[in-house]
Every structure is written in C-alpha cells, then in structure tokens.
C-alpha cells in the first residue's frame, strides 16, 4: 500500500530546505512508504490506553537551576559566521522585519 | 508598502453592520536570570551576541537544559489566569527556517500546553467587566533580533542585508492564547487594549516579568474577523503581528475592522494572512499567507523529558500567588474611601502605586489623590510623560503635604514648591528654604503690611468699624499681595480686626 507520493516528498523536501534530485525523490518515496507502513503497524498495537512515548527513559522534571553560567566570547560566537558586522551575524536580507 | 490607498469603512458604520470577533495572543518574556534552555544571562541592553552559548546559537551537538524557574513562572501565570495545570506536558519542535531562529526550529509546546482552560476578568474604563476565556498558556523560547541594513540607511542599492543578534534567542516566553472574544461588538478595540493591559498588570503583580512594553517584554498578536450577525459562524480572520503598545492594540483592531468591512462590502473575501502593524501610519499591511499547522512539522522534542508538575508543587505555587490587581484595587478603594469614578480615574492614570506610596509616606488619601490627579497630572500632560516618569517621588509629595498640614505653606505656596521640585531644585524642604516660600505668620512682619493696607483704604476701615465685615477680604487681599502670597491668611484676618478695633 503506497501512501507517500512523489509530490509529497518534494513538498517536504522544500519545507526542510533539502535539495533532492529526481532519482532521490523516486527512491525516497518508496523508502518513506516502508517507514510509514512500519509505524502504522505499531499504531495498530498501541491502543488508546498506551501513552505516547517521546523519550526512551522514564524521566520527568529534569530542571536546571536558574543560575547564570559561562557565555561564549563574541569572537568565538561569530567564528562560524560566513559574514559578521558590529558583533552581529550578517545574513541575506530578511523581508519581514520584526 | 503599497502606495495604493486601502479602502476603509468608517468604524461606527462598520460595527453597525458587522459583528467583530477578536482573539489575542500575548507573549511575555519571563524575568528569569537565565535563558529557557541554557545558562546564558538575559539582561537587557547588552552588546550584541555577548549573552550566547552554543545552545543559544544552535551549534551542532548542543543540548538544552530546562530552566526550572521558568516552568514555575509559567505555572504561576497559568494559575493566575484560572487555568488547569497539565499533569504532564511536553515540548515540541516548531520547524521553520528564519535567520533569527538559529536551530531552524523553535522549541515550543504544541498539543500539550502547560496551562489551559482559564479566564480573566477585564475591566473597561467605564467599569464594565468582560470575561475573556483563555484557551491555553504554553512555554517557548524567544527568537534573535534582526536589524535590516541598507535601503533607507543610505547604503548602495543591492547591498541590503540583515544583522542578527542572538542575545534574545532562548529567553523564556509564555504565550497566552484567548478563545474567540465574542459579544463585545463596537467595544472590541477597547476590550483588546484592556485585556493586554490586564495581563501586563498581572505579570507585574506575579513578579514573573518586568513587563515593560517599550522593551518588548510583552508583545501582542491581534486576530480580527467580522461576521454579518452574532449568530453567524466566525468569519475569516487576519492576525496582526507584534503590536507592542496598549494604544496600538486598540488602533490595530479598529483599523482591521474598518478594512475588512470595506473588503466584504466590495463583495470580496478576507484573506487569512498575517499582517504587519505600522506604528507611524496606524495601518496594517499584508504579510505572508497563513500556512497550515502541518507546515511547521511539529514533533515532540527528543532532547527534553516531559514536564510533570506534581499536584503538591502546583498547590505550593498557588499558595504563594499575590493578591490579584483587580482585587487589590477594590481593597485599596475601600481603604482610601474613593468613589468609583475617582478610583477609575486613578487606575486609568496609572496612579495606584504612586498614591499608595504617597499614603504610606504619611499623606491622607484625599490629599494624595488631589496632588497626583491634579497638579501632577497636569505636569505630566504638559511634558507628555507618564505620572511615574515625573521627577518627583511619592515621599516628596507626602513631605509637601506635611508642609501644608503644618501650616508652613498654604496651597498657593505649595504649588510653587512643587514647581521647584519638578524643576530639579531639590526636596520640598530645600525648595522652601531656597525660594523663601514659607508662610509669614510672624506678627511683626505682618503688622507692617496690615497697617499699610489699612492706611491705604480708610473708607474700608470705616465700613468695618461700622460693623460691616464684608470688606475685610479686600484688606487681606492687599496684605497677601504685599507679602507675595506668603502671609498666613487666618492670622492676617485676626490682626486686621484687632487693629481696626484698637484704633
């Protein structure tokens, strides 16, 4: 049962900013299909009384104290920036300013 | 911005024919010492990118560690808004690509907010109370700050780019979402404003945020839709983003009502989209078309374990909630003996805290109100500032009133003393000394002025001696004039009568 179309893979790739070739689109549509089908099988077993799991360890409430720690020196923070100006990251123009 | 003029329907006409429905999303930056997921400090006004860690920058391999105090503050807000607190909730990744979100996703909450199903009562300026239902309040992180370079800054064409400062990236936020607010009709803009103001007051009372609008600690997104009648299904809404002052919230709703009415009148449909608010021109312009929720590809955050506030913890937090602003106002009104209208004026003028502090410093409630709502309100208006921004403290006002109460200055002199304080000449006591404004009740000094006034007006003296006390005022006036208003009027009257009888 094929559930993931080639067009859907192309749309997701666009949303995720992943540049896929035509061949990759074809291949991934098939591969994702297998994954979705496998997950669907799990869903069949997991009935409403089985809580969703987002984390493999049975932990909750792991909190950090609200105490300031070390920060990066500006030079280090900007070290990976393709371009910087006045201590800030320079990026292509953003049309919708906040 | 388009140069085309957007057609608008007059507001009153629009609300006569359409029923506006609003919904508001408020983001509040929490006043924690550190960010939501890392130990970078959150202070305002630091140099760009000096408050960042690998987590703030979304560097590869960086892992989040949740700030427990931010969770506590979120619960405080939820409880104050009469919400249920989730026994278990999770964070989720909201995926989108934008330079101010360095991880390419915002860590937020999606289908499991920490607080939900609440309400808050909002009081309008005339005293009408509107209950606003809260759908949810969830935790998330703030984004970095973009500055656009080029264009209007005079750089050459084609060299336009943006600069990003990530100091704000990762500051804890709570986003509070209302259910659609219906049944308020033409008052929708007022309700929107009063709601945001109510939340701001609440954040301050809860001590979870400095809640300074001008610093962007509190930001509102305003949803507006119109429908033909209150029975009709909800119309298509627009969401105006980042409306960051009370006045703008009101104006933005008014504008959208007028604009959407024109669109509908024209037989077209309102486009579901985000819109930008332009503070300078008071208009909104179209932004991007609202995308489907799926486009954000939300999924549970694998790097953070669920938050499961124990019922004991929630009750512990509930027990520490302070008196809510509305209840506090009612209590203070009772204690101070102000009439409803008087109290509303005080609240609307932002004078509650100032008057409270003035009374605490020793002034009578009536006197405190007289100063702040009279002379000081005028001074604030003249200077176009808020009362709290005037260069005078509540304890100075109490000191000024003490000078009046002790008879050392009269009302007229007191106003001059206040003018001196506002002009930066020092405390009321210092101004009195420096300007020589004390009431003269020393008989020696006064008698000379009294004798002079009597001698100048013999006809008046004759009338008084004949038993007609009416003209005494004329003599007192002359003495006051001669002493530049510094004479103790009561004492002058006594002296005048003594002199006339003795003569």
UniProtKB/TrEMBL annotation, chain A:
<dbReference type="GO" id="GO:0016740">
    <property type="term" value="F:transferase activity"/>
</dbReference>
<protein>
    <recommendedName>
        <fullName>Aspartyl/glutamyl-tRNA(Asn/Gln) amidotransferase subunit C</fullName>
        <ecNumber>6.3.5.-</ecNumber>
    </recommendedName>
</protein>
<dbReference type="InterPro" id="IPR003837">
    <property type="entry name" value="GatC"/>
</dbReference>
<keyword id="KW-0547">Nucleotide-binding</keyword>
<dbReference type="GO" id="GO:0050566">
    <property type="term" value="F:asparaginyl-tRNA synthase (glutamine-hydrolyzing) activity"/>
</dbReference>
<dbReference type="GO" id="GO:0005524">
    <property type="term" value="F:ATP binding"/>
</dbReference>
<keyword id="KW-0648">Protein biosynthesis</keyword>
<dbReference type="GO" id="GO:0006450">
    <property type="term" value="P:regulation of translational fidelity"/>
</dbReference>
<dbReference type="InterPro" id="IPR036113">
    <property type="entry name" value="Asp/Glu-ADT_sf_sub_c"/>
</dbReference>
<keyword id="KW-0067">ATP-binding</keyword>
<dbReference type="GO" id="GO:0006412">
    <property type="term" value="P:translation"/>
</dbReference>
<dbReference type="Pfam" id="PF02686">
    <property type="entry name" value="GatC"/>
</dbReference>
<comment type="function">
    <text>Allows the formation of correctly charged Asn-tRNA(Asn) or Gln-tRNA(Gln) through the transamidation of misacylated Asp-tRNA(Asn) or Glu-tRNA(Gln) in organisms which lack either or both of asparaginyl-tRNA or glutaminyl-tRNA synthetases. The reaction takes place in the presence of glutamine and ATP through an activated phospho-Asp-tRNA(Asn) or phospho-Glu-tRNA(Gln).</text>
</comment>
<keyword id="KW-0808">Transferase</keyword>
<keyword id="KW-0436">Ligase</keyword>
<dbReference type="GO" id="GO:0050567">
    <property type="term" value="F:glutaminyl-tRNA synthase (glutamine-hydrolyzing) activity"/>
</dbReference>
<comment type="similarity">
    <text>Belongs to the GatC family.</text>
</comment>
<dbReference type="GO" id="GO:0070681">
    <property type="term" value="P:glutaminyl-tRNAGln biosynthesis via transamidation"/>
</dbReference>
<comment type="subunit">
    <text>Heterotrimer of A, B and C subunits.</text>
</comment>
UniProtKB/TrEMBL annotation, chain B:
<dbReference type="InterPro" id="IPR006075">
    <property type="entry name" value="Asn/Gln-tRNA_Trfase_suB/E_cat"/>
</dbReference>
<keyword id="KW-0808">Transferase</keyword>
<dbReference type="GO" id="GO:0050566">
    <property type="term" value="F:asparaginyl-tRNA synthase (glutamine-hydrolyzing) activity"/>
</dbReference>
<keyword id="KW-0547">Nucleotide-binding</keyword>
<dbReference type="Pfam" id="PF02934">
    <property type="entry name" value="GatB_N"/>
</dbReference>
<dbReference type="InterPro" id="IPR023168">
    <property type="entry name" value="GatB_Yqey_C_2"/>
</dbReference>
<comment type="similarity">
    <text>Belongs to the GatB/GatE family. GatB subfamily.</text>
</comment>
<dbReference type="InterPro" id="IPR003789">
    <property type="entry name" value="Asn/Gln_tRNA_amidoTrase-B-like"/>
</dbReference>
<dbReference type="InterPro" id="IPR018027">
    <property type="entry name" value="Asn/Gln_amidotransferase"/>
</dbReference>
<dbReference type="InterPro" id="IPR017959">
    <property type="entry name" value="Asn/Gln-tRNA_amidoTrfase_suB/E"/>
</dbReference>
<dbReference type="GO" id="GO:0005524">
    <property type="term" value="F:ATP binding"/>
</dbReference>
<dbReference type="GO" id="GO:0006412">
    <property type="term" value="P:translation"/>
</dbReference>
<comment type="function">
    <text>Allows the formation of correctly charged Asn-tRNA(Asn) or Gln-tRNA(Gln) through the transamidation of misacylated Asp-tRNA(Asn) or Glu-tRNA(Gln) in organisms which lack either or both of asparaginyl-tRNA or glutaminyl-tRNA synthetases. The reaction takes place in the presence of glutamine and ATP through an activated phospho-Asp-tRNA(Asn) or phospho-Glu-tRNA(Gln).</text>
</comment>
<dbReference type="InterPro" id="IPR014746">
    <property type="entry name" value="Gln_synth/guanido_kin_cat_dom"/>
</dbReference>
<feature type="domain" description="Asn/Gln amidotransferase">
    <location>
        <begin position="353"/>
        <end position="500"/>
    </location>
</feature>
<protein>
    <recommendedName>
        <fullName>Aspartyl/glutamyl-tRNA(Asn/Gln) amidotransferase subunit B</fullName>
        <ecNumber>6.3.5.-</ecNumber>
    </recommendedName>
</protein>
<dbReference type="InterPro" id="IPR017958">
    <property type="entry name" value="Gln-tRNA_amidoTrfase_suB_CS"/>
</dbReference>
<keyword id="KW-0436">Ligase</keyword>
<dbReference type="Pfam" id="PF02637">
    <property type="entry name" value="GatB_Yqey"/>
</dbReference>
<dbReference type="GO" id="GO:0070681">
    <property type="term" value="P:glutaminyl-tRNAGln biosynthesis via transamidation"/>
</dbReference>
<dbReference type="GO" id="GO:0016740">
    <property type="term" value="F:transferase activity"/>
</dbReference>
<dbReference type="InterPro" id="IPR004413">
    <property type="entry name" value="GatB"/>
</dbReference>
């Amino acid at each position: 049962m094929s559930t993931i179309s080639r067009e859907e893979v192309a749309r997701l790739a666009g949303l995720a900013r992943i540049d896929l070739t035509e061949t990759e689109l074809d291949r991934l549509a098939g591969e994702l299909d297998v994954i979705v089908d496998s997950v669907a099988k799990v869903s069949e077993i997991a009935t409403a009384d089985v809580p969703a799991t987002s984390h493999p360890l049975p932990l909750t409430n792991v909190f950090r104290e609200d105490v300031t720690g070390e920060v990066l020196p500006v030079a280090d923070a900007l070290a990976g920036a393709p371009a910087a100006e006045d201590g800030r990251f320079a990026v292509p123009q953003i049309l919708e300013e906040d | 911005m388009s140069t085309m003029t957007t057609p608008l329907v007059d507001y009153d006409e629009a609300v006569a024919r359409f029923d506006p429905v609003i919904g508001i999303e408020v983001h509040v930056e929490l006043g924690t010492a550190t960010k939501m997921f890392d130990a970078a400090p959150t202070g305002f006004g630091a140099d760009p990118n000096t408050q960042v860690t690998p987590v703030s920058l979304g560097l590869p391999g960086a892992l989040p560690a949740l700030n427990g105090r931010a969770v506590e503050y979120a619960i405080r807000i939820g409880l104050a808004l009469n919400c249920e607190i989730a026994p278990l909730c999770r964070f989720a990744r909201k995926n989108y690509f934008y330079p101010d979100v360095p991880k390419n996703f915002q860590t937020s909450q999606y289908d499991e907010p920490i607080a939900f199903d609440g309400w808050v009562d909002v009081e309008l300026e005339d005293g009408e109370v509107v209950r606003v239902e809260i759908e949810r309040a969830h935790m998330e992180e703030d984004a970095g700050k973009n500055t656009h370079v080029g264009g209007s800054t005079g750089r050459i064409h084609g060299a336009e780019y943006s600069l990003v400062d990530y100091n704000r990236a990762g500051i804890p936020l709570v986003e509070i979402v209302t259910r659609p607010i219906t049944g308020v009709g033409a008052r929708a803009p007022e309700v929107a404003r009063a709601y945001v103001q109510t939340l701001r007051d609440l954040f301050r009372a809860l001590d979870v945020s400095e809640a300074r609008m001008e610093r962007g600690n509190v930001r509102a997104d305003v949803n507006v839709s119109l429908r033909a009648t209150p029975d009709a299904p909800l119309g298509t809404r627009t969401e105006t983003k980042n409306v960051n002052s009370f006045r703008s919230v009101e104006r933005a709703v008014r504008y959208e009502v007028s604009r959407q009415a024109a669109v509908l009148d024209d037989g077209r449909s309102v486009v579901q989209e985000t819109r930008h608010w332009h503070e300078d021109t008071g208009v909104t312009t179209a932004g991007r078309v609202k995308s489907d929720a799926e486009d954000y590809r939300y999924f549970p955050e694998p790097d953070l374990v669920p938050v499961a506030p124990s019922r004991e913890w929630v009750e512990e937090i509930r027990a520490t909630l302070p008196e809510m602003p509305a209840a506090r106002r009612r209590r203070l009104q009772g204690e101070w003996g102000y009439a409803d209208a008087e109290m509303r004026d005080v609240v609307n003028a932002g004078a509650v805290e100032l008057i409270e502090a003035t009374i605490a410093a020793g002034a009578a409630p009536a006197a405190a109100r007289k100063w702040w709502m009279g002379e000081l309100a005028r001074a604030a208006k003249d200077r176009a500032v808020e009362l709290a921004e005037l260069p005078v403290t509540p304890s100075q006002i109490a000191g000024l009133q003490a000078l009046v109460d002790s008879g050392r200055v009269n009302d007229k002199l007191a106003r001059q003393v206040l003018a001196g304080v506002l002009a930066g000449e020092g405390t009321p006591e210092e101004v009195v000394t420096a300007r020589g404004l004390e009431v003269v009740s020393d008989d020696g000094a006064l008698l000379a002025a009294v004798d002079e006034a009597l001698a100048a007006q013999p006809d008046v003296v004759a009338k008084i001696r004949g038993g007609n006390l009416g003209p005494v005022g004329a003599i007192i006036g002359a003495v006051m004039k001669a002493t530049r208003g510094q004479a103790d009027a009561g004492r002058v009257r006594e002296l005048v009568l003594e002199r006339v009888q003795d003569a």
